[in-house]
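Case study B.
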Amino acid sequence: MKEKLLEVVNLHAGIEGKEILKGINLTVGPGEVHAIMGPNGSGKSTLSEVLAGNPAFSVTEGSARLAGVELLDLSPEDRSHEGLFLSFQYPVEIPGVSMVNFMRAAVNAKRKYLGEEPLGASDFLKLMRQKRAVVELDNKLASRSVNEGFSGGEKKRNEIFQMAMLEPRLSILDETDSGLDIDALRIVAGGVNKLRTDRNATIVITHYQRLLDYIKPDFVHVLYKGRIVRTGGPELALELEEKGYDWIKEEIDNNAGEAAK
Amino acid sequence: MMSASANPLLQYADLYNEHSATINNCSLSPLNALRASALQVVVGQQLPARGSEDYERTSLAEMFAPDYGLNISRLQVTADVAAAFHCGVPAMSTYLAVVVNDTIHLSKSLSRLPEGVRFCRFSDLSETDYEWLAGYYGKIAGLSRPEVALNTLLAQDGLLVRVNKGVHLSKPLQIVNLMAGGNPVMAVRRLLVVMEEDSEAQLLICDHTGLGAVECMSSSVSEIVLERNARLDLYDMEEASDATSRCSAMYVTQQEGSHLLIDEITLNCGRTRNDFDIRLEGEHCDTFVGGMAIGSAHQKIDNHTNIVHAAPRCHSHQLFKYVLSDEADGAFEGSIYVAPGAVHTESYQSNRNIIASVGARMHSKPQLEIYCDDVKCSHGSATGQLDQEALFYMRTRGIPEADARRMLMQAFMSDVIDSVRMPGLNDRLRQLVDRRLSGDAAHCIDCRHSCADDASKQS
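Model:
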């Protein structure tokens, strides 16, 4: 049987009593790249927030296992320690918290969770230096407050830098291409590709085919009205780019209409 | 002894009347000279109660109500506290005076004070200096406020800082105030700082409670004079026990071109009321007043500022930040007064607060009174919770919630901490804040040992 890294089964979740995810099923194996596409409001970002454990959302049904561990029972920090990483669509600015302190707290919390000794100062700085190179993140940014005053491109690079530091098993990149020019997109995508191994996996959430030219997916899923309504190979993304989402929407809405009759 | 009466001032007036000979004999004439007028105020006025104007959250009447003991015969503390005391600010060498309740000990470091600097007790002055002292003592504070009049009625000694014209003191001065003793006690503290023309100094004041101390109260009045182009950085740090009450009034006058920085840092306290009255009397003065308060349990922290722009072209900036949890009660009332003719005044005030629990409360009242055109003034106040988005972001990176909260609170305070210019003190402060926020004993560990030693020697 094929090994499963992430297994989401019949996931229902919503916010303030409004159901947004209406039964998501998704399986991701090691080494794979999955793209999740879909029109605005279909629930793409909700899926990433729910998997990461944003307390603003409540899960009403279903399960999500990462390497056999039920994520939905864990705090956001423990999900991170188990190997989940979310690259935010809008990375949060945290004035007064330096990148160094932020990263050190994150790395050492994970080490503690895994029963390892905290990293010493010089080892930690060495690690920072190494990983910064992955996305060509300037040392000046690393010494500033988290995301404060960063440009859109710098914020996204900073996300991938953090991903490199934490070496997750599963990374979810939420609209990582938004707000990026072509050069920044190339650097960010290049960083993601460098971090790929046959043991970890990536979920790329995006509106556009463009990013998928750089991060090549093995599977493409279409999310619509809180469900994955279609799954295919990379060619599905090209088809969407050409034809838009309307044909899928019509198909699904008509079927739903038929079923209602 | 008297029991706590409806007007607690009267119990002290009685005490004074009964012991006036002793009080005067154990003091010096510039201080004694003001007692008669102080007594008049004390018997003629009431201490403000909670909810009265400018005292929305603090009752001075309640604060002074307990029947505190006073050391009017000036009994000396036997132990050499100054030698036993070791402050925890690392790599920081200071000229140190230690005040146990209201008894002042000068450390050996003071024998090496550079020329042109006096840092001593009022009682160390020779009689030829009394006239000079009388020219300042009580003149800046006045007697209009009853708690200040009470302090003036009872004060028998005080600390003097005098930096002569043109003298730049590179090493900071430090005053460590300790509350000690096994009985409820009130310390009556006075400080006079005279910075002469073109002089420069840094002063660090640390308020602590000894481990053995029970319910105690510090009443302090500080008078600070900055002459032309003088510069003073003053860091006033309180890290006291929950049973400590503190009523502090700081009066400052600034002459032309002088620079003042005050950071008022309340790390731990019982109930605290700090008043700042700052008059900018000459042109081109620059004033920064920063405040940082961390309150938990049932602690009360009340800061009250009044900055008077009496001269043109001065600049003042106030920045007060509070983090309150549990049932803590915070208050900030700040007023800016721009007098007629004080053109080109720039004055800003900001008060930001984080309420980290359901039970904590914050009262904030900014006030601007402007009697002059052509000024730039602003004030702002915001009270809210920790940024939930930032909290979630940090948790997704694996930072445990409690740590993330602490880091965010510390970050919230960072601009006040960054205003500290004394080498070594910012780092120390960051550590102390971190320890305080992580809910550890939150005491300045090194100090605590010596406080404990000190308390045991006292009893």
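The two ends of chain B are 21 Å apart (CA to CA). The remaining cases will be described in the next quarterly update.
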